[in-house]
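Exercise 7.
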Amino acid sequence: MKAKTKQICKKVFVWAFYLLVLVFIVLYFRDIDWSAIRNVEIAWGFMALSFAVRMAGLLLQPLAWNMQLKPYGNALPGKKLYSIYAQSWIGRYIPGKVAWVGGKIYFATQEGVDKNVAVITSFLDSMLQVIGSLLVAAVFFLVVQRAPGVDDSLIYLTYALTAALLLCLVPRVFNFIVNLVHKALKRTAIDEKYRMTGGPIWASTAVVVGAKILSGMAVAIIALSVFGKVSLADFLYVVAANCAATAIGMAALFAPAGLGVKESLQVVLLGAVFPREVVLVVVTLASLQSILGDLVFYAIARLTLGFGKKKGEEQGAPEE
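Solution. The predicted structure, written as tokens, is:
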């Protein structure tokens, strides 16, 4: 009965949240000049470039996870790596994000990856998605030294949160957290052989940060394709705004792939530098491109990188 009540409360919360998002969007854009939107001319060459940049960022991400697997002797060959990652990445669209992390663990163990290794690296990879986005946002906000119309306290909060989360990546701290969770679940300390070292943590962090910069650049290029003229400061600001919104969206477990959360934050942050008409077009195009990019990523893994190979086909040996 208690579980049923909890489930009902969760559904009410989710519906209430999305209702508030809808009300916010309606109020924010109620005075919008729709004729200006109809007259927007999109530079499709820039849109194509934007999509290519986004895909480059997506294709980088599995490499970061493999860097974490490698020290344990569980690195995956390219085809298996991308097939597992693509399947779990699509799982982000299921509320709760369980399919995203759990799917990676399940499919990795099916390929012979040690279960503890799969759990630890999947946990770290999920952390890096949020931390990498926040780190890019913090650095780029610091570089441009401006966030017009945005409360300074939000920017300072981004700095503080980024610093706190980066501390969690220090090997001693990360291993302590993993051990604490393992003790809570298994009642025993985790074996020393599963302790993560600094090399793979920081190397994979660098790759994820690179992927997030590309993702932010994709949105900035969309803004360029719509608005026509975007200064370097505004370009960097859009990258920062997108990464900040992405981090919060990924941390919102109830929102499938952060939908609604990410877009609302993008509207607020981008509205500080662009007219509302431009913001509406940019956020809509960015959201559609993000979904399309995820589907193309999945399709690439399925059709090109050997996703869904039949049983009995030759299994590649893990890379050393």
